[in-house]
Design a protein that fits this description.
Number of strands: 14
Oligomer: single chain
CATH class: Alpha Beta
Structural class: alpha/beta
Bound molecules: flavin mononucleotide
Number of helices: 10
CATH topology: TIM Barrel
Number of domains: 1
Distance between the termini: 18 Å
Helix content: 25-40%
Largest sheet: 8 strands, parallel
Mean pLDDT: 85
CATH architecture: Alpha-Beta Barrel
Radius of gyration: 19 Å
Length: 365
Amino acid sequence: MNLRGIDFGHVLDASGARGWFGEGHPFHRWVPIGLSFSGSTFVAKTTTLKARDPNRALGSDNQTPRVLRQHCVHVDWRKGVVLNALGLPGPGLEALLATGHWQRWTEPFFLSFATIEETAEDRLDEVRRFVRILKAALPDFAAPVGLQVNFSCPNVPHDEPLPDSVAGFRADLDEYAALDVPLMVKLSATQPVADARAITAHPSCDALCVSNTIPWRQMPDLIDWQGLFGARSPLERFGGGGLSGAPLLQIVADWVREARRQGISVPINAGGGILGPADAEVLHRAGASSVFVGSIAILRGWRLARTIRYANRLFSKKTAVATAPAARASAAMPVAPTARAASSVEPSTSPVLSDASPGESPRLL
Ligand SMILES: Cc1cc2nc3c(=O)[nH]c(=O)nc-3n(C[C@H](O)[C@H](O)[C@H](O)COP(=O)(O)O)c2cc1C
């Protein structure tokens, strides 16, 4: 996925999957046969402007949220779901910048930001302060960076119905534009495609990312909440939480298909419920431009590496076809460093591709 001349690759992390600085979570070390995000573009966990920890999710360093053995995260491996109510905990933007880790990252990556103030006016002020601080820090960044603007965290209640939110999001984008970096708006599949269209009509919206978690009990006709969790959320005392994992896949695929049908033409980074290589294919077919991998790291970590490899092959084929004339036209232009570590010719370990003989192109290429 190329945004403003920067190659962000075909596979991105879900924000929150690899922590603040790509360090991963402590449990990653214990996944059988190893867990590797190699070939996926780093997307930092969403930070807020100020420090916060509404549900006491931060560990002893007061910076890193724990994911497993965490009272506001519920995991069901058998059903392939995660429910979380972390509530965007963290030390705040300035503390994270002060570590210098983002500045030293050497390949294109994304930061992620969300506002938390109650009113649209206060949120706009929050965005302005965020932009001022990040803009001052950007000259020290070694790698090109994009910003994922998180317009969809279910664990931060805001005061307005959706129509007003769209106007608010567009006003926010006016401010984010001053950063002069690629802007990717992150939505939830609960948000109407028509609203997404209005947001993508903003000249500074370079791409969409869909979906964030699905808030507790929403989309009851598509999600069997009762079958998954019973009558009450295991995270009831935190407001119910937001759902990740298997049930999201078809919902996201349908959302992306509808977005394309309604004429949304910006790149869409799609994810939600990718738990293996074949799931990436579902989103590819629906019209996604790239995919992201999230709770697969928690639920099916041993499949992560081959899912990333498979998706890289799948989307590089589509890109090669779709962008060939443009690539020829810009052949003399300088090339941004690639975010992709995975080679498109490395041998596959994916069962979906296992009918390819060594040295032969995999079936899907
Ligand atoms: C433990 C956890 C933490 C998350 N943190 C964030 C976050 O900080 N920012 C964000 O935009 N999404 C966050 N998400 C949502 C994921 O990025 C992703 O959109 C969602 O989980 C759906 O994808 P998946 O089913 O592949 O996990 C988080 C999800 C989980 C399970």
